[in-house]
Description:
Blueprint (H helix, E strand, L loop, with lengths): L1 H14 L5 H18 L1 H7 L6 E3 L2 E4 L5 E2 L4 E4 L9 E8 L2 E2 L2 E6 L2 E6 L8 E8 L4 E9 L10 E5 L11 E5 L12 E2 L11 H15 L1 H9 L3 E4 L18 H4 L9 H18 L8 E6 L1 H12 L4 E7 L8 E2 L2 E2 L9 H5 L5 H4 L3 E7 L16 H11 L4 H14 L6 E6 L9 H12 L28
Parallel strand pairs: 2-10, 3-10, 13-14, 13-15, 15-16, 16-19, 19-20
Antiparallel strand pairs: 1-2, 4-8, 5-6, 5-9, 7-8, 9-10, 11-12, 12-14, 17-18
Helix pairs in contact: 1-2, 4-5, 5-13
Amino acid sequence: MKKFIRVLVFSMLISMNLLTVSHARSIFETLSKTSSQTSSQTSTQTSSTTSYKTVDGFYMVETDSYLNTVEPSTVVLPEEFREMAVDGYSLVYNDEFIPAEITLNKNIMSITPSGSLKDGATYQVRIFAGDDSRYAVNLKAYNLKSIDFSRETVVKIPANPEKGFNYPYYLVIPRNADKSEIKRLIVEPNNSGMVSDVLDLHAELAKAGVTGASQSGWVSEMLQIPALMPVFPRPLQEWWDNYYHTLSREVMLQTTGDGVRVDLQLIAMIKDAQELLAANGLEVEKKVFMTGFSASGQFVNRFTVLHPEWVKAVFAGGFTMYPAESIDGNILYFPLGIADIKEIAGKEFNLEEYKKVAQFVFTGDLDRNDRIVETEEDYNAYDAKVMYNLYKTEDCMIIWKTKERLINDLGFGENFQFHIYEGIGHGIPSAASHDILEFFMKNNGDEIVKINAHKDAGYWNPEELPKPIR
Length: 470
């Protein structure tokens, strides 16, 4: 009871800015240590059912449990904790308090950190019992401790600036991924479809997408390959200069803040995921499958031009960037082309690798989103003028067919397949669920293979879904 009162009083003083957290911690543990020393006989009797080693006045509790770096963790304590009266808890790392919600139901403890924990670091949970005895549990934190291939695993990997990414990402390892003969990641940039300064909102939408509501989730489930989706922001504040979901010019030119070079951050995430999978017995190829639609389709188009050495095959809704410096005398600056790619990306265009990437790009015959006008978030006045010079119309179907012709004229017809789904506007047709599986399965090897894609956007026949070789 005395510790409960102390916790209550200290919490009130901290909230009133009359006491710092570190000062409160020092006073609290000094008082607790004194209490435990004066009642050591009682503490020993309370702990008599288990033999504990004592360190710094704490009974050390052994457990096989561990912490997840971002998600709630469950820790199984010895049976005697079922009936134990507990006044409070704390989570500590390197002798510093870590904000976390900790609850105890019988002998099952739930720990939810308010922020991300450090992968591989050891934390200590301290338990203050009502009889003034104190317990400590050392727990190691993991992004992913192990993979159970008998079931699906969904893990959120926290931001890791030391490894090159300032935002988290989701990794899904489907059931039987170890048995699939296709050993690649499927990567889809997140596309929230809305602006918000709350990154957790974009994280929830990304999780929903990669676990089944997106094309990458579908491919992951059906082909039994791991899927990765980053959690890039799409802020409300100054949204026109921060359209990360399309990999816009303004985004690529940022020099300060967490959003600098999100293209390189995605590569860092891919490397991290590949290392994590390899450490758990699943080796995957360096080159990835990529998919996206609308904003994320633009991201994929642009990323593939910038970094073709990382991409095996693309299945994307929309096409916006040409692998050329100019067409018909029109200089194509990023994001229309590669005239200033060295300035934008710090590297030359890799023509050899780009020609190895199989690309299926699609639109709907009722889609009116392929505009050739200046926009606040993506195209400037010069871009709009160039697009009009190239297409000479605002008819989206004529624009699409012109794009296909220009790609063929540039010499990339062998690795591109343009397709129009009939009977759909700006959306992903159910027929694409057939075609994306067939396309990736047939373009997993050395040859670039075009498929006989469905025309009817509404086509769906589960009996005709391709069966991957396992």
